[in-house]
Design goal:
mainly alpha; transmembrane helix; DUF4190; DUF4190 domain-containing protein; membrane
């Protein structure tokens, strides 16, 4: 066999549908606009550790996640919505624990200063 002759059996046949195969119909589904908002608010609440952006991140993220699930695949962004509400929830929990620790510290400081 030399380099100039095709291999036995007819050689390589391109797949049906053209030289690059069948192109997918359409594109990816559009992203839910509230998913991005929830993620941004969740990141801000986690960095700033506050309920000012944590509560909206949780509410908007949960609502966007429900709407994406109800869209039956016509919308995407469920991972961003979930990350947003989880970050919002974590920041609210951390803020609550910090507030509780502050109150306990303040009560103990008052109790110990009054006994001295």
């Amino acid at each position: 066999m030399s380099y100039g002759t095709p291999p036995p059996g007819g050689g390589y046949e391109p797949p049906p549908g053209g030289p690059y195969g069948q192109q997918p119909y359409g594109g990816p589904p559009p992203q839910h606009p509230s998913a991005t908002t929830a993620l941004i608010l969740g990141i801000l609440s986690f960095v700033l550790c506050g309920p000012i952006t944590g509560i909206p991140a949780y509410i908007i993220g949960k609502r966007a996640e429900r709407e994406i699930a109800a869209s039956n695949g016509t919308m995407s962004g469920d991972g961003m919505a979930k990350a947003g509400w989880i970050l919002g929830l974590i920041s609210m929990i951390l803020f609550g624990l910090g507030l509780l620790a502050f109150v306990v510290f303040f009560v103990m400081a008052v109790a110990f200063s009054s006994t001295s």
